[in-house]
């Protein structure tokens, strides 16, 4: 398995990346920001994405986006093809994209929003902490990305204060003791998710 910084030679994988993201979101039944192949190609081109290939076969992907004049970067669009899941590949991609973010944008805070327990666990192990949306970028372009998510009405209703996603942030200036971290408590994450779902989704069906 090769895990490399993407470039133009990987354009041919843009379609399968989009399809895998869309199909996985359908299976999970959760909301996700939709991406077009053109959008993915831009990310493949600018040296800010990581792609995993098994020979010539697409296995996984994640990219960095820069917000608020480099004050923040997000590691977004993490996807592992179903044929390659549960082998630690997402963890390797996440780690590589995190390292690349730190190399290229050493002063930026790194953040993500997610409903996925796997992503929460990986972020936590890298030193991210759960935060309210007020701690994340206020760059409107970032939040525009949520418009294609099926839960966008919740984000609008709460005036962008909260949604089903949990915000997580790595602050390079905060003292971090990653090596002393305990494993995150999966039950707490699941409980947080289910509280949010019952709060927001119930209201929605009224
Ligand atoms: C989420 C996803 C990226 C995980 O990829 P993967 O290669 O199977 O993950 P890994 O094998 O590296 O596992 C990393 C950790 O997440 C955990 N994990 C993996 N899938 C999980 C799931 N569905 N639910 C809960 N935890 C999960 C693993 O147990 C592992 O934790 P551990 O270190 O405590 O053992 C993959 O399932 C995927 O692409 N899903 C669809 C897209 C998606 O949900 N993206 C995130 C959008 S926010």
UniProtKB/TrEMBL annotation:
<dbReference type="GO" id="GO:0016747">
    <property type="term" value="F:acyltransferase activity, transferring groups other than amino-acyl groups"/>
</dbReference>
<dbReference type="Pfam" id="PF00583">
    <property type="entry name" value="Acetyltransf_1"/>
</dbReference>
<keyword id="KW-0808">Transferase</keyword>
<feature type="domain" description="N-acetyltransferase">
    <location>
        <begin position="1"/>
        <end position="149"/>
    </location>
</feature>
<dbReference type="InterPro" id="IPR016181">
    <property type="entry name" value="Acyl_CoA_acyltransferase"/>
</dbReference>
<protein>
    <submittedName>
        <fullName>Acetyltransferase (GNAT) family protein</fullName>
    </submittedName>
</protein>
<dbReference type="InterPro" id="IPR000182">
    <property type="entry name" value="GNAT_dom"/>
</dbReference>
